[in-house]
Design brief:
Shape: elongated
Radius of gyration: 38 Å
Strand content: 5-15%
Distance between the termini: 147 Å
Strand order of the largest sheet: 6-8-9-10-7-11
Structural class: alpha/beta
Largest sheet: 6 strands, mixed
Helix content: 40-55%
Length: 561
C-alpha cells in the first residue's frame, strides 16, 4: 500500500473515532474549544466535526450551534447575560451583540427564552429543551390545543410565569390570552364574557383575578398583585376605576371589595359569588353557595286549597299543566325550533286579596319548582346607578340558579306595581331616570329570559304597554262571585253550615284574603273563650268590623283656623 493511501486511511479512522455520539457530547467539545477563542475561524476549524454533527441534527447554522452550546453549558442559571458569554469566549460584548440575530433565531425556535426587564437582557434554557437534548433529539416547540376551561387556565398560568420572568410583554399577554379564549369560544365562560362586552383590558384583568382564585384560592387581590399584569405598574386609570367602583367588573358583578376585620378594603378585591359559581362553573371547583333567603324551596310550601271563579280556574289549571317539567321542556323545545322566545312571562293582576301570590306558591308546589322572590323595595337604592346594578345582579343570580338546578325556578315579582308603571318621557329628575333605567333593564331581560317569570299587581291603570306585550299569559283575578265566596267560607270553616256560608257570601262582598282574615280572628277568639261550635252572629260581627269605614275613620292632623 502506498504511503498516501495509508495516511488517508489513518485520517478516516481518526475521524470515525472522534465522531460524537450525542448532542451533549458535541456541545461539551464545542464549549471547550470556544474558551478564549474570540469566536474566530480557528474555533470552527478545531471543532468542525462537533459543530457539523450538532448543526445537521438540530438544523441550525454553525454560529447558532456554538451559541446554543454556550448557553446550554450555563443552563443551571435562569439569567444568562450576554456579558457571561463574551467573557468566556474572550471578546467584547459588542461583538456578541453584532451576532445577536443568530441568538434571536434560537429564541424564535424556543431553544432560548429571553427576559427584557427594564432594558436588561438575559436568557434561560427551558427545561423542555434540555430534556430533548438529553434524549439526543432536536427540540420542536408544539402548543397543545385548548379544549376546556381548565386547560385555558393552565395555559394562562404558563403565560403569567413568562410574564413574571419578563419573557413576554403585556401586549403579548393580552394577544395570546385572546387567542386562547378563541379556542374555547363555545364554552359558557367565553360566551358569557362576550355577552358582557368587556373591553380587552378589563377582560384580561378579570381572567387574571379568576386565575389567582383558581390557582391559589385567592380572595384578597391587591394592587401589588395586579402589577404583575403590566410591564411596569398598574396604570392610574385602571387603579382609579377600581377604587371608585366605575370599573366594568363592578358593574357586571364580577368582583367586589375584600373585607378585613369587617371593613371593606378599597384597594383589595375578590371574585363575587356569582363569578365563582356561574362563570367558573365549568371547572367544578365545588364552591358552596351562600344560602339565599329569597329562594323559597318547593318543599317548604304548604299545600292550600284555593277557590277561583270559573274563568280563573281554567287559566290557572292550564298554566300549571304547562309548567310541569315534562310539558315545559317540550313546549320550550318547540318554541326554540320555531325561532321564538322560550321564556314564560306571566302576569297575575287586578283585585287585592284574590289569591294571586298564593296561586304562584301553589303552582310552584304542584310543579316542584323553587321560587326566587324579588323584594322590589330592596332593589331600589339611593345611590346613583346602584339600583340598575341590583336588578342586573338579580337576573344574573336567576340565570345561575337555572343553570345549576334541574328545574328552572319561578322568578316572582310580587306587588310589582312600582316597577311596571308607565315610563317617564323626557325624565329630568334622578329618581325618574332611575325608574326608567330599571324598567328598561327588566324589559330587555324579559326578551331573553329562558325561565319562568311571574309578576303580581293590584294596579293596572298605570301599566306600561311595553310590559303588557311581553307577558305571554295574563290572568285577571276578579273578586269572587257569591258562589265562589260560599265555597271559600266552607273551605275556611269546614263546620259552617252551607246555608250560613251562603248567607255570609251574599251579605258580604269579601275577597278570599278578607275571608281568611276573618276566619283567623274567629279562631283566635274561639281559642280564648273556649267555643267549639260556630256562632254565626259572632262571625257576622267580625265581618262588619273587617273593613275600615271612611265615615268612622279618625282623622289625625292640624285643624285649619
Amino acid at each position: 500500500m502506498e504511503p498516501q493511501t495509508i495516511n488517508e486511511t489513518k485520517q478516516k479512522e481518526t475521524i470515525v473515532k472522534i465522531r460524537p455520539q450525542s448532542l451533549l457530547e458535541a456541545f461539551e467539545h464545542i464549549v471547550e474549544q470556544a474558551e478564549g477563542s474570540n469566536l474566530s475561524s480557528d474555533l470552527f476549524e478545531k471543532a468542525s466535526v462537533y459543530i457539523k454533527y450538532a448543526s445537521r441534527k438540530l438544523k441550525l447554522t454553525p454560529m447558532q450551534t456554538v451559541f446554543l452550546a454556550l448557553f446550554v453549558d450555563r443552563s443551571e442559571y435562569n439569567t444568562i447575560m450576554i456579558s457571561d458569554i463574551s467573557g468566556y469566549v474572550g471578546c467584547r460584548t459588542t461583538r456578541i451583540l453584532r451576532l445577536s440575530s443568530e441568538i434571536d433565531i434560537l429564541e424564535e425556535k424556543h431553544y432560548l427564552r429571553a427576559s427584557r426587564s427594564r432594558n436588561c437582557l438575559s436568557y434561560r434554557v427551558p427545561g423542555d429543551v434540555l430534556k430533548s437534548l438529553r434524549m439526543n433529539q432536536p427540540y420542536i416547540h408544539t402548543i397543545q390545543p385548548i379544549t376546556n376551561l381548565q386547560e385555558f387556565f393552565d395555559r394562562f398560568n404558563d403565560l403569567m410565569e413568562e410574564m413574571n420572568n419578563d419573557e413576554i410583554t403585556h401586549e403579548v399577554l393580552l394577544l395570546q390570552t385572546k387567542e386562547c379564549l378563541s379556542e374555547i369560544k363555545d364554552s359558557y365562560f367565553t360566551r358569557t364574557l362576550k355577552r358582557l362586552n368587556l373591553c380587552d383590558e378589563n377582560s384580561l384583568l378579570f381572567i387574571f383575578m379568576a386565575h389567582l382564585f383558581v390557582e391559589n384560592d385567592d380572595d384578597y387581590i391587591n394592587f401589588g398583585d395586579i402589577d404583575q399584569l403590566f410591564d411596569d405598574k398598574i396604570p392610574n386609570c385602571c387603579k382609579n376605576e377600581l377604587r371608585s367602583h366605575t370599573s366594568e367588573l363592578f358593574e357586571h358583578d364580577l368582583i367586589e371589595n375584600a373585607n378585613e376585620n369587617g371593613m371593606a378594603r378599597s384597594d383589595c378585591f375578590k371574585l363575587t359569588e356569582y363569578a365563582k359559581t356561574d362563570l367558573l362553573s365549568e371547572l367544578n371547583l365545588g364552591i358552596k353557595t351562600k344560602s339565599d333567603h329569597n329562594l323559597i324551596k318547593t318543599n317548604s310550601v304548604l299545600e292550600k286549597t284555593l277557590i277561583y271563579n270559573q274563568s280563573e280556574q281554567k287559566q290557572v289549571e292550564e298554566l300549571s299543566a304547562i309548567l310541569s317539567s315534562e310539558r315545559f321542556n317540550e313546549v320550550q323545545s318547540r318554541l326554540r325550533n320555531a325561532g321564538m322566545r322560550t321564556g314564560f312571562c306571566c302576569l297575575f293582576y287586578d283585585s287585592p286579596g284574590t289569591g294571586k301570590t298564593e296561586t304562584v306558591y301553589q303552582i310552584a308546589r304542584a310543579t316542584e319548582r323553587d321560587i326566587l322572590r324579588v323584594d322590589v323595595d330592596k332593589i331600589k337604592s339611593c345611590w346613583v346607578g346602584e339600583s340598575e346594578q341590583n336588578i342586573k345582579k338579580l337576573f344574573d343570580r336567576y340565570r345561575n340558579i337555572c343553570k345549576n338546578s334541574g328545574l328552572a325556578p319561578i322568578l316572582l315579582f310580587n306587588e310589582a306595581d312600582a316597577i311596571l308603571g308607565v315610563r317617564m318621557e323626557g325624565a329630568i329628575h334622578a329618581v325618574d331616570k332611575m325608574e326608567n333605567s330599571i324598567q328598561n333593564i327588566i324589559l330587555q331581560e324579559m326578551e331573553t329570559l329562558d325561565g319562568i317569570m311571574i309578576a303580581t299587581t293590584n294596579l293596572t291603570n298605570n301599566f306600561d304597554k311595553a310590559f303588557e306585550r311581553r307577558f305571554l299569559y295574563k290572568i285577571q283575578f276578579n273578586r269572587p262571585t257569591a258562589e265562589a265566596r260560599t265555597a271559600i267560607w266552607q273551605t275556611m270553616m269546614p263546620s259552617l253550615a252551607e246555608n250560613d256560608a251562603r248567607t255570609l257570601a251574599t251579605q258580604f262582598d269579601f275577597s278570599g284574603g278578607e275571608i281568611e282574615n276573618i276566619t283567623r280572628k274567629y279562631t283566635v277568639n274561639a281559642i280564648l273563650y273556649g267555643k267549639d261550635s260556630i256562632d254565626l252572629s259572632a262571625v257576622m260581627e267580625l265581618c262588619r268590623n273587617e273593613r275600615i269605614s271612611n265615615s268612622t275613620r279618625v282623622k289625625i292632623g292640624f285643624r285649619t283656623l
